Amino acid sequence: GGSPLSCLSCVEVKMTTARYRPTWELAVDPLVSCKLCLGEFPLEQMTTITQCQCVFCTLCLKQYVELLIKEGLETAISCPDSACPKRGHLQENEIECMVAAEMMQRYKKLQFEREVLLDPCRTWCPSSSCQAVCQLKETDSPALPQLVQCAVCALEFCSACKAAWHPGQACQESSPPIASFLPGENRNEEDDAPIKRCPKCKVYIERDEGCAQMMCKNCKHAFCWYCLESLDDDFLLIHYDKGPCRNKLGHSRASVIWHRTQVVGIFAGFGLLLLVASPFLLLATPIVLCCKCKCSKGDDDPLPT
C-alpha cells in the first residue's frame, strides 16, 4: 500500500544511493616500478617472485628467464635483482607460467643434466653416439676409479677419466674421447654426432647448427667440433686449411678470408696507433717530469713571512 508519491520518493532515494561512490574508490591504482626496464606499470602487469617477494614487470622477467634457458648458463634461475636481500630463486611452476612448452622442456633437460653431473652415483656414457646415464656402484670412496658398463651400448669405461677401462693403470689427464661404433657406423657419423664433451672441462655440449668452431660456455675453451683440437690460439682459423678438417669450418672461403682480414686489421690498427703515438709520448715524457719536479720543488719552499 501507500500513496504513489511516497513510492516515487523511495525510488529517488535508492537511485541517489546507487550513484554515490566514496572518493577513495575513485582513486587511480598506483603504478609499480620495474627494476629491470625502470618503467612504471599497473600491478596486474607485474610479477612477484614468491621466494623473495621482488616485483618486476612480467615482460622483462619473461625475457630474462628465456635468455638464461637459451644460454644454458644456470639451472637455478635467481632473482634478476643483484641486490636482492633474500637471494631468491624462481620456482619451477613460476617459470612454467612464463615460457613456452618447448622452452620449459629445455629447462628440465638442463636441470636433469645438472643433477647427473653433481650426483656421485651417476655419470654419462662418454660415447657421443649413446649419451645414456650410467649407474655407479655405491662405495665409501666414490672418487676412486671403477669399471662402468653402459646398459645401452655395453661400452666399458673408467668412472674417473671416462676413457676406456684401464685396470692397474693410472688415469691420464687428457684422455682422447671414447668412440663406440655400432655395426655399419663409420667415423663420419661420429663426427656428426649432435652431442660431445668439451675436451677441457668434460661438460656435454649440444651442437644444433653453425660452424665447427665451438666455444664451451662453461670454461670458455675454443675447439674444433670434429677433431676436438684446441683453437684458443688459432685466431685466423688456420686449422681448417689442412688436415682432416680442411674446408669443414661451415663457412664459405670468402667469409673466412673476411674474418682473417678483420683480425689482421685490428692488430695492424693497434700497431699503427702505437707507432703514431710513440713520438708524442717520448716528447711529452720530459715535460711531464719537469712539471712534476717543479711542483715538488714548490711544495718544499718555505712560506713567505
TrEMBL record:
Assigned keywords, A-Z: Membrane, Metal-binding, Repeat, Transferase, Transmembrane, Transmembrane helix, Ubl conjugation pathway, Zinc, Zinc-finger
The residues covered by the RING-type domain are 30-249, 34-80
Give GO cellular component annotations, separated by semicolons: cytoplasm; organelle membrane
Catalytic reaction annotation: [E2 ubiquitin-conjugating enzyme]-S-ubiquitinyl-L-cysteine + [acceptor protein]-L-lysine = [E2 ubiquitin-conjugating enzyme]-L-cysteine + [acceptor protein]-N(6)-ubiquitinyl-L-lysine
State the pathway, as annotated in the record.
Answer: Protein modification; protein ubiquitination
Provide the primary localization: membrane
Entries under CDD domains matching the protein = mRING-HC-C4C4_RBR_RNF144A (cd16777), Rcat_RBR_RNF144 (cd20352)
Recorded topology in the membrane: Single-pass membrane protein
Bilayer-crossing residues are: 263-289
Q: What is its subcellular localisation?
A: Membrane
Q: Which processes are annotated in GO (biological process)?
A: protein ubiquitination
Q: Return the SMART domains for the record.
A: IBR (SM00647)
Superkingdom is Eukaryota
Enzyme Commission number, as recorded: 2.3.2.31
Annotated GO MF terms: ubiquitin protein ligase activity; zinc ion binding
Which family does the entry's similarity section mention? Belongs to the RBR family. RNF144 subfamily.
Q: What function does the entry list?
A: E3 ubiquitin-protein ligase which accepts ubiquitin from E2 ubiquitin-conjugating enzymes ube2l3 and ube2l6 in the form of a thioester and then directly transfers the ubiquitin to targeted substrates.
Write down what this protein is called: RBR-type E3 ubiquitin transferase
